Amino acid sequence: MLKFFSRMIILIAACVPFTQADESYELGAGDTISISVFGQSELNIKTTLDASGIFQFPYIGTVAAAGLSVNKLSTGITDRLKDGYLVDPQVFVTINQYRPYYLLGDVKRPGAYPFIPGITISEAIALAGGMNSNGLFALAIEPESIFVYENGDRDNTSVAALNSPVGVGDTIAVKQGSANYLLVGDVKRPGNYPFQEAITVRDAVAYAGGIDATAVIESIAVYKPSDPATQTWVDPSYTIQRGDTVEIIQARLQYFILGSVLSPGAFPLETGMTVQQAILRAGGIANSNQPAQYFVFSKDNAITKNQVSNTERLTNGDTLVVEQDDAQFYVLGKINSPGVYKLTPGLTIMDAIAMAGGLTATSSYTQSQDLKRISVFEKTNRSVAASAEVNTEIKAGDLIVIGKGMNL
């Protein structure tokens, strides 16, 4: 019955021409319109308005349609064509397809749908395949289970009922029945889940397949059905209540590697990863014939430098610095090829920038600004940066940062 109802709505919509648009309807981004000029077929066009709400029309050039009704748009084009192009032009503007509305929440096929004049929320839900199988939807659903953000504006929220009309560009959030909870965000299987007594967020994440293996939970937000606009921050031990919407926000597990490696930068951290494995992920040591020392700065203490062995296990957010005693220096920041370079006598920072492929900035102004922000960390004291000029001579082991500060 539901499939038949959905097909009937689509069939009726397909048979309704959009030639007579409501004079109060204002055109906007996403609307598809046709414009024809009687007796002038070469001027007939069809266009979809983009975010700017403007389009190009033969003879007269740029036309701003956003915020106008079809009648006002037709009048505006007519007046401009009369101005030296056509005598008494007859311009017709037709809306071929309205910009979409968005249906979210406990429906089988959430997403964007083409607007149909006069469509109600119950009909929109039917077009989306109805409610999810574990939602408690019925024709007697309580009105507070449906929220409408007019034209997508979350600051303009209203409670709606099944027979409420859908507006162009509206975002409709259909909330679940009170015997479920909704898990969204960075989990492998987001969606509605049957409520269980004493279930925690940690349990719910596990039921949903967990999160990415190279990530950790950074924060958790809970939205209550009685106040869906207000978020409460909780920890994984929070006990989920009936009707809760729980949003999981993850942070990537990663480490940073600098110094004498072929590809310094940020890399995903795998469980149990050692210093040696981290170096291999970064392409290996720059000079494999020279001995190296390894130092780690933790995420929570970027000042203390801890020497470690190559079997040491890294933790999330660690910065690993690989140092070698041969004559070399390091260049990082806003350059095209950051990395380790061989030091020759008399080499300046400007020479180093050239060796590193030049600045990433393309405009002369940005380049000049980047060249004013040069920091140098000497080998003997990586915790303190000294400002430098482009003609500053480089010393062995210097770590040079171009265009931005750096806090080791």
How would you explain this protein's 3D organization?
- By secondary structure, this protein is α+β, with helices and mostly antiparallel strands.
- 16% of the residues lie in helices and 35% in strands.
- The chain has helices at residues 2-15, 70-82, 121-127, 201-207, 275-281, 349-355, 364-372; strands at residues 32-37, 45-48, 54-57, 61-64, 91-105, 111-115, 146-149, 157-159, 171-174, 180-185, 191-194, 215-224, 227-234, 245-252, 254-259, 265-268, 292-298, 301-308, 319-324, 328-333, 339-342, 374-378, 381-387, 399-402.
- The longest helix has 14 residues, at 2-15.
What does the secondary structure layout of this molecule look like, with pairings?
Blueprint: H1 2-15, E1 32-37, E2 45-48, E3 54-57, E4 61-64, H2 70-82, E5 91-105, E6 111-115, H3 121-127, E7 146-149, E8 157-159, E9 171-174, E10 180-185, E11 191-194, H4 201-207, E12 215-224, E13 227-234, E14 245-252, E15 254-259, E16 265-268, H5 275-281, E17 292-298, E18 301-308, E19 319-324, E20 328-333, E21 339-342, H6 349-355, H7 364-372, E22 374-378, E23 381-387, E24 399-402
Parallel strand pairs: 5-9, 10-14, 15-19, 20-24
Antiparallel strand pairs: 1-2, 1-5, 3-4, 5-6, 7-8, 7-9, 10-11, 12-13, 12-14, 15-16, 17-18, 17-19, 20-21, 22-23, 22-24
